[in-house]
Amino acid sequence: MSDYAPQQPATARKSPALKGRARVPGDKSISHRSFMFGGLAAGETRITGLLEGEDVLRTGEAMKAMGAHIEKVGDTWIIQGTGNGALLQPEAPFDFGNAGTGSRLTMGLVGTYDMETTFIGDASLSKRPMARVLDPLRLMGTQVVKAAPGDRMPLTLRGPGVAAPITYRVPMPSAQVKSAVLLAGLNTPGVTTVVEPVMTRDHTEKMLKGFGASIETETDKDGVRHIRIEGQGRLTGQTIAVPGDPSSAGFPLVAAIIVPGSDIVIENVLMNPTRTGLILTLQEMGASIELMNQRSAGGEDVADLRVRSSDLKGVNVPPERAPSMIDEYPVLAVAAAFAEGETIMEGLEELRVKESDRLAAVAAGLKANGVDCAEGEASLAVRGRPSGKMLGGGTVETHLDHRIAMAFLVLGLATERPVTVDDQAMIATSFPEFMGLMRDLGAEIETAEAVA
Ligand code: S3P
Questions:
Q1: With the C-alpha atoms ordered 350, 354, 357, 363, is the resulting torsion angle positive or negative?
Q2: The CATH homologous superfamily of the domain defined by 10-26+243-447
Q3: Has this prediction a pTM greater than 0.90?
């Protein structure tokens, strides 16, 4: 997406009760990894339920540029991978658009190859810190040939002849950093170890094991995880059914809770415990969320969620829960605006370096709509007002951030006056079906003509 694309505003207005069943698109984290590991593994990988959002498709393009064959036949993505250790030098820079996960994981994947790769992205991605991935890669022998100030994109990597295995303690709770080091370890002789003091989403570990990598996790007496991967092994293509994205499900879920009279079912949602912090928190707030048809699919827990509108009360969200709901704080803040009393969210420092400074963007958006909130260095306190009395009427700046756009459109479904977001175009990076899915449930959201 060009940085100069015209903005496409959208407006959400007070809606009648939401009803019906919805199926959210495939999980973004698993979709990125399916393209990557499928592109790398020897033989055929077949993927159904893939999220066809812009971010994930860019990861697919990157894998193609390094020799993988990827095609879609009917509903199935079919990949012929290169084989571990056999990626080719791409002819052009990788353009990762808005995608933090795609770019950071790919840096790890290619960083130990004896080749040069260049990474570019949009204005949002170019502001995001990449040192968190480049630092461990440097320890493994990767040279950062060029980078914008502060180790930002655009940047160029040159891999070593033979990479050195490391033991790396991840300094912040980040699945992207953990994954980048493990992926670098795939093309490194010997054992690369990631030490993870705070558990983050474990899709990389689980999926790599499924593809046949020699990877083991041990949790010590202090709860610290030690993940060891033996490099240069064989990966073999797999069949993957991607479950629905709990982060995307968060939007219709909160919408149904705050729009009076709503009763919806969201089908096939990933229930991996590293991803369910929002559901737990909303249940603590008094939300009616019923887990139905709980089952295991492709090594992951999934369930259908029946969600009914509910009276909420404010809660304290403990900081240690942040990794399991890191992308859900914008929409949780919207729910908190409708709760009786105060909701305090802490441990939010990572929100400052997402697609936007999400802490600042959420606080500004709430204030623009008359919600009483206080932004701290790494915390947010929202003093809610029970449903029906929220003013709304504001215009929210989305700063090229899909989750800010979707969260505030959800807010507008239950406020007295409509809520406008300045740009909804970025929603396509993670949830291209958002508008249609919400409208089918009864949400009143209008998109305006693009404004230059
Ligand atoms: C992701 C990890 C998280 C999350 C992102 C997806 C992943 O980022 O916010 O949307 O797929 O590994 P961090 O690793 O920066 O916490």
A1: negative
A2: Enolpyruvate transferase domain (3.65.10.10)
A3: yes
